[in-house]
What does this fold into?
Amino acid sequence: MIKSLYVKDFILIDELKLDFDKGFNVITGETGAGKSIMINAIDIIFGAKAKKEIIKTGASKAFIELTLCDINQSTKSIFEENEIDYDSNEIIISKEVSETSSRSRVNGVLVTQDFIKLLREKLIDIHSQHQTYTYIQPKFHISLLDSFANDIHKNLLQEYKTTFKTYNETLKLYEKAKENCSQTQDKIEFLKFQIKEIEDAEITNLSEDTELEKELDILSNAQILKELTYSSYWQIYGNDGNIIDALNDIKVNITKATNYDDSLNSTQEALIDALENLKEVSNSLRNYSETIEPNEQRMDEISERIGILDNLKRKYGRTLEDVIASYNRFSEELNSIEFSAEKVIELEEEIKNLYSRLQNMAHSLSESRKSNAQILSTAITEELEKLELPKSRFNIAIEQCELNNNGTDNVEFLISTNISESLKPLIKVASGGEISRVMLAIKSIFANSDEVNTVIFDEIDTGISGKASQSVADALLTLSKSHQVIVITHQPIIAAKGTKHFYVAKSQKDTTKIFVHDLNEENKLKAIAILASGDVTDESLNLARQLVNS
It folds into this structure.
């Protein structure tokens, strides 16, 4: 419900803050005082077009802020989907309108108009002579009818919606499977060729290509390597005057020298180590030179293998790791195609069964809706009679349509408020006094089943008086027991039922200004007295007391 409204530099208002009651809020005032301005502000907050003309003369921008509390739980999902912090205790919606732009914020976060409109559908109904309302729009009629139905209907509807969701998900899987299955036989054969080509290469070592290149390089230079290593061995240990013999002579000399100076012991040890190391090097070079031989057959084998691997890398990736990754991808794709062929048949059968179930459930829903439509039509007609529309007829048209999330029904509310007129869509009811009472009748019936908890009626008493006014007043009071009701009225009978009363006055001294007064009990009686007789007299005050206490 609306907790408070704050406006600044809005039309004729400098600054204003109103705190609303959770029950029956009444707005009265002088003719032409601007009683509808507050409703306009709330309407603009909830997405109505904001023209630059709403900015008060002399100001650069208009600002409106609405604080709501006791938020219905279903609103939470809208906030979560838009990643906005949600507080079930309070929501603050603001609108700033400048000469060139307007911005809406919810809990301080900039939001789109689409988001605001979603909130409107969940939180508020505004009924005025120049608006399209939630209850008038045909797109809401099927959900209204369903909300009126009993638990058996609601459980069937929930089961249908769950099945319909499964049906749609299965259709998507089916289309995907068909798409995969539509691959040509050429595609399948080509995948098999690619898979076989990689399999035939029998790649077990992802570094094989690098290792083979190294081996081929050695074999290609085997003769040179043989000559170089043997020549080195010969110089170290093979010929007369070789390095080993020379070092042995040096070792003999150093050994003798240590007899005279033991500080040469470390030099002697280093020389011995060098001799041993050099002998090992010599043996290694000799063995290498003796074992390495040119091998044309092995070179041909390596070249052939490298050619196979290079060919795969040209086709399927820069490295053998890329080749294996391609192999895995081809295998998955082939499995998917082969699986899809079987899956298509399976899904076709599943879709057929789901569709059959949906048709049966939709038929049951339709029969249930028709039954509930008769009950609802009678209830609304009776409510219209209470509101002094005794010749009204209310009917709910249910026509078959294509299978959808709600079944196979199109639902539209029809009404005739005059005995001589045929039933017409509710959206085409033109009379301001009639449409307000029709909305009040419908809202009264749905009071316990809909989510919206704030209802605003702008001049609901247009075109009514006397007994009709009393009926409307009683209906509004009853509605206010379950909903917050805000009403602009000229009728003292209606105003007397209010639990909170605002009085709008206009001042025209240097400039035109609008003031809104939150009336206490004494001033409330005076305001009702003015509505009743145009002046405050003992007689009109007594009448006001009677109306308040009746």
About this structure: Residues 5 and 199 are 75 Å apart (CA to CA).
